[in-house]
Amino acid sequence: MYKTKEVMQAAYVVDDLDAAIEGWLKMEQTGPFFVIRNAAPENFRYRGEAAEIVMDIAFCQAGPIQVELIQPKSTGPNVYRDTAPAETQIYHHQCYITDDLEAERKRFAAMGIEVAQEADTGGVQFAYFDTRHLIGCMTEVVQRGEAMDGLCKMIADAAVDWDGSNPIRMLG
């Protein structure tokens, strides 16, 4: 569906997921949104250290770009709060899919950019790189796989000819 290294997602950290979804539905008229409550990624690491996070997440398709809204709920360290203090909303990261996450780690390391956050959850491996000094936001890289491809296809397919009905759909 998405080409390797093609930016396929724009992500925002929000303080109130429900209010953010309503804003997107009203302003952009994009949808439907797929929501995951209390997501807690497995094997979560923040700047090389084992950590934990709980967050609410919503996804929708806006033309060729997937939009992700993230509301961190736990207070531990994470890349979302590195950029967006509580009670703020901000563009946080771009995301692309790769066929070789390990090669991307090496490519970023060669530029002096370390992994800021990573996890492996539900068969989806991803890593965030702190590229704010280069492009003004973080960069997330996701390992291509069946689970990721299936999720992206479901979100994109639901947006085709969406008539505004059932704007919020729960996942997980």
Detailed description of the structure:
This protein has helices spanning 17-27, 79-83, 101-110, 132-135, 146-159, and strands spanning 7-13, 33-39, 45-46, 49-50, 55-62, 65-72, 90-98, 115-121, 124-129, 138-143, 168-170. It is α+β, with helices and mostly antiparallel strands. The protein has one domain: 2,3-Dihydroxybiphenyl 1,2-Dioxygenase, domain 1 (Roll). Strands 4-3-8-9-10-7-1-6-5-2-11 form an eleven-stranded mixed beta sheet, with helices on both faces. The two termini are 22 Å apart.
Offer a few descriptive terms:
globular, 26% helix, alpha+beta, single chain, 5 helices, 11 strands, 11-stranded mixed β-sheet, 2,3-Dihydroxybiphenyl 1,2-Dioxygenase, domain 1
In short:
This protein is of the alpha+beta class and 172 residues long.
The parts where pLDDT drops under 50 for at least 5 residues are none
CATH superfamily: 2,3-Dihydroxybiphenyl 1,2-Dioxygenase, domain 1
- Overall structural domain count: 1
E-strand count: 11
Query: Which structural class do you get from the secondary structure elements?
Result: alpha+beta
- Number of distinct helices: 5
Radius of gyration: 15 Å
Secondary-structure element pattern, one letter each = EHEEEEEHEHEEHEHE
Order of strands, widest sheet: 4-3-8-9-10-7-1-6-5-2-11
Looking at CATH, which topology would you report? 2,3-Dihydroxybiphenyl 1,2-Dioxygenase, domain 1
* N→C terminal distance: 22 Å
Which SSEs are present, and which pair or pack?
Layout: E1 7-13, H1 17-27, E2 33-39, E3 45-46, E4 49-50, E5 55-62, E6 65-72, H2 79-83, E7 90-98, H3 101-110, E8 115-121, E9 124-129, H4 132-135, E10 138-143, H5 146-159, E11 168-170
Parallel strand pairs: 1-6, 2-11, 7-10
Antiparallel strand pairs: 1-7, 2-5, 3-4, 3-8, 5-6, 8-9, 9-10
